[in-house]
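INFO batch 0412 | record 1 of 1 | parsing
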Amino acid sequence: MDNDKERDIIHKILDGDVGADEKKIISRDMESDPGLKEEFVGLENAVRMLEKSERLEAPPAFTTEVMRRLSRRAPSALNRVKDFLFGSRVLRWNMATALAAAIIVLVTIVTVSRIHREPSMTPAMTAASGLSESAITVRLTFHAPKAHSVAVAGEFNKWQTDADEMKKTDGTWSIDLKLKPGVYTYSFIVDGKSWVPDPGAESYEDDGFGSRNAVLRVNI
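INFO prediction complete | emitting tokens
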């Protein structure tokens, strides 16, 4: 007999739902199958233990409390949307947001109207701004016919030794730089290792390391 069918008969026997013929069949099968017999004995002992154990009475309000909890149903999706859109806390938040948006729109309208009322100020301000930001082309030259390479490093290029390399023509090295008005210090780097202040500079200042840098003044 199939093990599943045998287990069904075992449960029927324990429940008292089988006849004498079925009991004989399962008894014969258990004699030939120790595992099945062990399972039957274990289940039979468990049933007897339950029958002999003390039965506890449920509290008087147990059934009422269970039914009350089961009656609580989760709110529908439509109700959750309604609560979100029209709840008092959300409604207050929506009103505050609308008020803030109205203030922003009002400030924007006032600002735009002021700009339209004062058109003459815009070109003047733009011209002044463009003038202060305009760059001037400055040429630096250095006579070093025996040098293999010359570059210029200064405040205008954050003292990078390879950012602005000069070109050689008949022993004279030169470079054109676009600089905004201001005062800059700089030096020439000869053959990548020697720092030489510009001999043609108008003035110099100490570099803090026992040497000096050339000073370049760019005027409008």
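INFO post-check: The radius of gyration is 49 Å.
INFO record closed
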